[in-house]
Amino acid sequence: MDADLTRDAPSPTVTLLTGNELLGLFFRHFLGEQAHLEVALANFHQRGISHSDLILVDAGHAQTEELSDLIDQFDEQTPLALVNIVPEQAEQLLEKHPGIRGVFYSNATREHLLKGICTLLAGGDWLPRMLMERLLGQLRRMRHLAESKATLTLREREILTLAGKGLSNAEIADQLGLSPHTIKSHIHNLLRKIGASNRAEAAYLLRSRLDWGEYRA
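The structure assignment produced for this chain is given below.
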């Protein structure tokens, strides 16, 4: 979709959820003038939002949990994007809500914002390059881990699950009736198999992605 949308066609509607009145006025003026879009404003607690072609969620000064609860209220039929957000918070929300279609950091330029919104309205996605590369890297690691899952022995899965619960080598050894040296050897082998660099990374991936059946953390 070109930024200069024709006036003959019905104007797409963009809904901005924000508690910042000035930001809302800016979006309404800027998008209306530059892209001939209809901009509807709503607050975070408003229910029954009317039809919209794109939902923008203002993340400025909002807690991640609040934003997550808000995103849960919408289905994935209408594209949703986060605006005025910092990279770390965006990554956390994308981890939990992969249906998010766009991210605009708080330092995004007007040109960047306009081009991204038009791309989203045309059915595309708009994510910052570094964020996209990080997500792709995680996806590749998850795929590698999923493929490596079958290579772990039952004992290695058991040990990894206990490590994921925060137990030390000595505590795992005591619980399983093995020596700490044996536990250390098992952990070294399983880290090599799944491609994790340390216990913390392996435990994180275990909690967030892998299903270990009866030994799930």
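Interim note for the steering committee: The longest strand covers residues 80-85. Strands lie at 13-17, 38-42, 54-58, 80-85, 102-105.
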